[in-house]
Amino acid sequence: MATPPGAGPAALRFVAAASWQVIRGRCVEHFPRVVEFLRYLRAAAPGLVRYRHHERLCMGLKAKLVVDLILQGRPWAQVLNALHHHFPESGPVVRDPKITKQDLRKISEAQETFCQQVKQLAEAPVDLASKLQELEQEYGETFMAAMEKLFFEYLCQLEKALPTLQAQQVLLGVLCY
């Protein structure tokens, strides 16, 4: 895995560990940073994980962010702004020869379905209390456990791709800290 200047294996491991803490701690407000890190990894090492794995994880984290805004009772304008920011209608630009049409279709359908659900909720909040309860269940702890698993698998692939740490590097890192 080629890393840009200043983003050596130690820096990547550090950001990966911080991102892991964000996911494990369910710090939803920092999910955009984790998504940014995942996009960086995808650009630097497109073969690290399959496209669908990457997109499921990123889309899940972004969806959780939007759902949390709804559950917090934020104004619909703020929710819809977040939705449009994290799920632009143009969709992601994909440059990966290994992506199948089925992968693209499934990701696109999932994104469209989620966006339609949120927009329908914003336009006509009929039976809002039960819809909020459904959202809370659908994007609750079981969902986050699945996101955590996907992220852990991503980190395992990253660790395999990075050079092994030597004992001297570990000691130096501990002493410098």
Structural class: mainly alpha
Radius of gyration: 18 Å
Helix proportion range? over 70%
Q: Say what oligomer this is.
A: single chain
Give the terminus-to-terminus CA distance.
26 Å
Query: Which sequence of SSEs, written as H and E, runs from N to C?
Result: HHHHHHHH
User: Any idea what the shape is?
Assistant: globular
Strand content: under 5%
DSSP helix count? Answer: 8
The biggest sheet, with number of strands, parallel, antiparallel or mixed sense and barrel status, is: none
Low-confidence stretches: none
Q: Total number of β-strand segments?
A: 0
Structure description:
One of its GO terms (biological process) is telomere capping. The protein is an all-alpha fold and 177 residues long. The chain is 72% helix and 0% strand. The protein has helices spanning 9-24, 31-44, 51-71, 76-86, 101-123, 128-138, 141-161, 167-176. The longest helix is centred in the middle third of the chain and has 23 residues, at 101-123.
